[in-house]
Design a protein that fits this description.
About 45% of the residues lie in helices and about 15% in strands. By secondary structure, it is α/β, with parallel strands linked by helices. Helix 1 packs across helix 9, helix 4 crosses helix 9 and helix 6 runs antiparallel to helix 7.
Amino acid sequence: MIERVDGRAIVFDSLVEIAADHVVGLKAIKKLGGFPKATHLLENRVPTTKIGRSGMLGEILATEYVAQETEFSVPVRRLRHRDTRELAMRGDDVLGFRLAKTRVKVMKVEAKSRVSLATAHLAEARTGLANHRGRPNPETLAFLECILRLDDRDTEADPITFLLKNPIYVKDVCHLLFTLSGSAPRNLLEANSQAVHKGIELRLCGCRVKKHADFVKAVFDECVASGK
């Protein structure tokens, strides 16, 4: 995916709101009376480092891609549950789920965000996808189930319970390697298009934006400024 001419200006306000929803949650912001009264939350939840912000935006866009452009749903926005704003959460970056007759399908996602993509970045992502024999991390699944159960979203939690209690077959798993970068990702993605684990479908999505570092900074600067 390539950024359209003048496309950033069209979607920027919406993207800032989406980022705030992932980082804090619009429900929490609304309970405080809106953005002006939620400044303290945003200031203390948005990463301050370039690396932290870049990684976070990559995961946000990967989550939105799965939810909006694939047949999988993402029931939990994990970034709201980080214990510290500067460190990435452990476990799978994003997990999507889909009910298929008597089976539960799951999409396991690794997201990478860099100014300039390199082979090493994709190798790292492939290693993440390969962990746990290509299946989702059980600890991540259990974490998601806990969140959903605590929120009384039992219908959404039940498929995750099924995955934790039953064998997960390769036919029920799909991988997605998602990149956000300032450089062109096509050649690197094509060079890494072979399946990470035998029998598991691998999908690739590269999102290229102009002046990647400026883009990341602008989204989170405005996210915090919206609260002032």
